[in-house]
Design goal:
The protein is α+β, with helices and mostly antiparallel strands. It contains four helices and six strands. It is globular and about 40 Å long.
Length: 119
């Protein structure tokens, strides 16, 4: 489902998406960066995912439309290879709490302490 509105709030580093069915998602830049659909993050198959560490302060610097089906997010850490199609963005929003808690758990398992709790 294509968002009816995409708004980047630079100061809070949040990408807000609105949908026809009334759903609104507010996704942080950190969350979108660590769940990037790029091969660099997801790997080339199951079990090849690479945990992204130290992304608390990452910012989205640009949003590039990709046809009528997706956007490319450009981050200030030079990551720009992820193409976020509409289905993925909706899924990331719908599963935010579950995904975020899984990410925090994985960081803890790696012994990493986040700089700040920005979410």
């Amino acid at each position: 489902m294509r968002p009816t509105e995409i708004q980047l709030h630079k100061k809070s580093r949040i990408l807000e998406l609105a949908y026809d069915d009334g759903v609104r998602h507010r996704l942080t830049a950190e969350y979108l960066r660590v769940y990037s659909p790029s091969a660099e993050v997801r790997g080339h198959g199951p079990g090849e995912e690479v945990l992204q560490i130290g992304k608390e302060d990452v910012e989205i610097t640009d949003i590039v439309p990709v046809g009528n089906y997706a956007i490319q997010l450009v981050f200030d850490d030079n990551h720009d290879s992820g193409i976020y199609d509409w289905g993925l963005l909706r899924d990331l929003g719908d599963k935010y709490e579950e995904n975020w808690n899984n990410y925090l758990k994985r960081l803890k398992e790696e012994g990493y302490t986040r700089k700040q709790d920005t979410n």
